[in-house]
């Protein structure tokens, strides 16, 4: 009898091998990795089609059928391929053949048996990739353990490890059958997880191991909702009228929007209804543009007391805007408000014009009102300005300053504008004490004009340092004379100037000469002379005299020729 049994098995296997050659082989290849000395079971990727199918497993040549004897270390039991346990030499190709009365398919499977290394409970080649979102919690799954469930769907106890260290004594983790629950998932939870069970088969217990490489993915941050319209505003509404209030905003699909009035939901108030319309964003399907409409069927006086608030909220924050209602302003109040606004605009515009055109305005005022001015006030002053200038009699900048001081200044300010100037070297008498003359005439002057040139930035070119000291003392300390600084040439560096000059420049600024020294009769209407006249005292009466030429004038004219 035993001989007949083995002969029948041989015939079946032989016929199966012949039939396997007629099957259509799948193009896709499946690679399975398991550890040596562990039990493992594979059911392939069966494609159920048509009538009930028969499953057969074949060795690497695709023809030799796997043994059906359960005592064999590698055998087929039901539809699955069993390794009890796996050995390194089991690595290779296996074929799963699925056939019925109409079809036959052959699936090629590569199985690789890995050698265990001391101190390592996983191998990257055998790992399953799994991902979790960072957040409050989530599960990772020990794959392909359902084969080992008993008839009550119970599994042997699953032990979990992270980087080969036990986990289940840690309150962060909780095992549930083939699942491991992680609380408060963070980036540092990434790593290599191993699940292990001990399974009894044919009277012996074998280990079954699965390795998982867990990656943590950050959750997409919620975007703050944005209210497009309205901005915070107050609007006039007639009592008893109907009013539509629209809140236009962009938000994500699950963001919350509502209206409030006087601390409660507005749509729950009498005579108020609420509706909403959403329009998807074609560029980002998670973002929608929504319009929330509040309809006040009849405006009541109490609606003027509190604003209507539109709220949009999500995890990222809250956006809000308000619309306050008020009764229409009466005509008289409107006129009053309009008058105040107009007056404010006129004043502001006038100040703006004055700031830009103040020189022209002041000069125009002086010229227009000249006939109504009285004679100069009795302030004890004789001269309108004392001229402080460089006193070198050599070629160069001194010659330019002499032309300006002795010819151009008197021509414009005295002859054309009627001012009275004191120029040391022209108006002093021979033999007078210089210090006394300087001190006395500076005190008699309403302005101090200081002429600067570019070649002698140390200002020692004033020559008579006593004149400089007396002038500065009277201007800055004693009499407080207003000072006018004139640059005949551009001075780039004031670093070597006395502190008094630097202080005056910073406080009053300078007026730069841009005229022609050779011009016969300069005009007082140029921008430079208008600025000088603006800083000079108001002139009550035009001068009617012409000063006789001095000896110095003759010298200057001879130099010019």
Automatic annotation (TrEMBL):
| Ranges for domain TIR | 381-536
Predominant place of localization: membrane
Gene3D superfamilies attached to this UniProt entry: Immunoglobulins, Toll/interleukin-1 receptor homology (TIR) domain
The family database entries (PROSITE patterns) matched by this protein are listed as:
IG_LIKE (PS50835), TIR (PS50104)
- Matching InterPro entries: Ig-like_dom, Ig-like_dom_sf, Ig-like_fold, Ig_sub, IL-1_rcpt_fam, IL-1_rcpt_I-typ, IL-1_rcpt_I/II-typ, TIR_dom
What residue range is the signal peptide? 1-20
Q: Name one GO cellular component term.
A: extracellular region
Q: What is any one GO biological process for this UniProt entry?
A: regulation of inflammatory response
Q: Which SMART domains match?
A: IG, TIR
For this UniProt record, give its keywords in alphabetical order, as a comma-separated list.
Cell membrane, Disulfide bond, Glycoprotein, Hydrolase, Immunoglobulin domain, Inflammatory response, Membrane, NAD, Receptor, Repeat, Secreted, Signal, Transmembrane, Transmembrane helix
Q: Where in the cell is it found?
A: Cell membrane; Membrane; Secreted
Could you tell me the membrane topology recorded for this protein?
Single-pass type I membrane protein
Query: What family name appears in the similarity comment?
Result: Belongs to the interleukin-1 receptor family.
Matching PANTHER family:
INTERLEUKIN-1 RECEPTOR FAMILY MEMBER, INTERLEUKIN-1 RECEPTOR TYPE 1
> Can you say what this protein is called?
Interleukin-1 receptor type 1 isoform X1
Species the sequence originates in: Phascolarctos cinereus
